[in-house]
Design goal:
mainly alpha; 127 residues
Length: 127
């Protein structure tokens, strides 16, 4: 993409044309350490056995296997490999099919005068 040997265009001009920073041209990202690669391999094997394990359980598991890890490191490695823990979600907004649904009796009613419709909130009545 960028030719450093080009004599007609400078590297700075080529980077500006391609919309790349010059510092990004010379940057080489660091590879993962050998220990992190072995942890990733173990995490991959563990995911197929227990996909419901979360961050804390995995940290304890890896500490039991002799690795020096903390939750931040495991969280970063889990994000790197795309680990998504399987767990049941709360279903608080879905109504039960057996419960009776009460109709809204004021639907379509045009309110034209005071005291035509009354409402009361009984969510908190001290006994």
């Amino acid at each position: 993409m960028i030719d450093k040997q080009n004599s007609s265009l400078s590297v700075e001009r080529q980077c500006r044309l391609v919309n790349v920073h010059r510092s990004g041209l010379y940057y080489k990202p660091c590879a993962e350490s050998q220990e992190n690669l072995s942890i990733l391999r173990l995490l991959d094997e563990q995911y197929f056995k227990t996909p419901f394990y979360g961050l804390r359980k995995l940290t304890v598991l890896l500490k039991q296997r002799g690795f020096t890890v903390n939750r931040k490191r495991i969280k970063r490695l889990m994000a790197l490999m795309g680990w998504q823990t399987l767990y049941r979600y709360k279903r608080t907004s879905e109504p039960d099919k057996q419960h009776r649904r009460y109709p809204y009796l004021l639907k379509g009613l045009v309110i034209t005068r005071p005291n035509q419709v009354w409402a009361m909130d009984i969510t908190y009545v001290p006994m």
